[in-house]
């Protein structure tokens, strides 16, 4: 597809064509990335902009049926990208709490996930808190509690200096280590399921 000669409906047709979709999506990604960089380059890092552009492309592809041709396709797609970026910026404004408060919220979330309706559940909550303190590295504990405390993956990555892939691995390893610790302490499958649900 020649981007300079394409009509608005050419974009839609090509993005729907399995044989040409990848190339068209890559072109769309480049156009959106440049636009978001111009608009939000001072507020977001290059890595953030790359992630948000990818999200915007996915949302645009999901919403192709909603495009009615009432505006230029790239204008319509850019508006989706802008909404994605503004949504992330708004989330960050709400996530400017001190890390100590975020971690406290994460510990509280463990308690809410295992709200004590019985002594057994109360015990499970205490055991899980203890395991989080004992089994995890400082970095794993901080990332896990920050997620439980309500921070987005992008915000946790920004605060810890990790990219999304590294952060997913860190949290995966933390959960795996936590569950192994509980198993070694003698807790069975039901206990492990409860603990896993609380830290998802």
Total number of strands: 0
Tell me about the largest β-sheet.
Answer: none
What is the count of helical runs?
A: 10
Secondary structure category: mainly alpha
Radius of gyration: 22 Å
Give the overall silhouette. elongated
Question: Which key terms come to mind for this protein?
Answer:
200 residues, 75% helix, disordered C terminus, Arc Repressor Mutant, subunit A, Rna Polymerase Sigma Factor, Chain: A, mainly alpha, 10 helices, 2 domains
Note down, in words, how this protein is organized.
There is one protein chain. The protein is an all-alpha fold and 200 residues long. It has 2 domains: 87 residues, RNA polymerase sigma factor, region 2, helix turn helix motif (Rna Polymerase Sigma Factor, Chain: A); 100 residues, Arc Repressor Mutant, subunit A (Orthogonal Bundle). The chain is 75% helix and 0% strand. The chain is built from 10 helices and no strands. The longest helix is centred in the middle third of the chain and has 22 residues. The C terminus is likely disordered.
Secondary-structure topology with pairs:
Layout: H1 8-16, H2 21-40, H3 46-62, H4 73-94, H5 99-113, H6 119-135, H7 138-148, H8 153-160, H9 164-184, H10 189-198
Give a nutshell description of this structure.
The protein is mainly alpha-helical. It contains 10 helices and no strands.
């Amino acid at each position: 597809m020649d981007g300079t000669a394409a009509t608005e409906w050419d974009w839609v047709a090509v993005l729907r064509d399995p044989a040409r979709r990848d190339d068209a999506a890559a072109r769309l990604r480049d156009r959106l990335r440049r636009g978001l960089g111009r608009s939000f380059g001072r507020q977001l890092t290059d890595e953030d902009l790359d992630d948000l552009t990818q999200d915007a492309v996915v949302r645009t592809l999901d919403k192709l049926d909603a495009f009615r041709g009432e505006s230029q396709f790239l204008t319509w797609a850019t508006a989706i990208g802008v909404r994605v970026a503004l949504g992330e910026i708004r989330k960050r404004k709400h996530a400017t709490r001190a890390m100590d408060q975020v971690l406290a919220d994460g510990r509280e979330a463990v308690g809410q996930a295992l709200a004590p309706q019985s002594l057994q559940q109360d015990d499970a909550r205490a055991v899980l808190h203890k395991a989080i303190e004992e089994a995890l590295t400082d970095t794993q504990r901080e990332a896990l509690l920050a997620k439980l405390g309500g921070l987005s993956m992008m915000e946790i990555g920004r605060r810890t200096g990790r990219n999304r892939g590294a952060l997913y691995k860190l949290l995966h390893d933390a959960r795996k280590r936590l569950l192994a610790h509980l198993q070694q302490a003698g807790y069975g499958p039901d206990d492990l399921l409860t603990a896993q649900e609380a830290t998802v």
